[in-house]
Write a structure and sequence with these properties.
This protein is an alpha+beta fold. It contains 5 helices and 8 strands, in the order βαββββαββαβαα. Strands 1, 2, 3, 4, 5, 6, 7 and 8 form an 8-stranded antiparallel β-sheet that branches. The chain starts with a strand and ends in a 22-residue tail after the last helix.
Amino acid sequence: MGKTYERIDGRLRAFIEAQHMFFTATAPLAADGTVNLSPKGLTGSFAVLDERTVAYLDFAGSNAETIAHLRENGRITLMWCAFEGPPNIVRVHGSGEAVFRDDPRFPALLGHFPAVDPSRHGLRAVVVVTAELIRDTCGYAVPFMTYEADRDLHGRRFAREDDAGLDAYFRKKEHIAASIDGLPGLPLPLPPTQ
């Protein structure tokens, strides 16, 4: 039933880009470390950069597990599943990197997300993933669900924060500068944009 792909193009790319949400999975190297699984959504915050590279915007939140795991070992899996239309699940297994706001590559990467105003969401980084294994599976057991709209709560909450306010917010959270397992997370103070 499942198929392996060499690249993200054609029907596969169209499927990925049409989904309203996806999931990221990461883990530390320690055998007893905490596995992290995060939902991602917000129209326009995901982009296919080329046939083997994708990226998404990493926004303010209450932890930084994905960033911490990527900084330690780079392993990441992204997953999309069809909640509408024909059943399908796509996974991109690969290596990822959090490109922070003070990185010289950041402005060019941000150009891949023209539909998102990053100032409204407390943008922390652009996560870039290089695919090492691309697979799909049937998704027969995934339920039908209907997309209504993006929630506006995140944008409303973080639109009122400048860099100093974001830094203060991040410092109050227990798992931003360090992960649940104590790995380095988001660099603080928050790197400025270039």
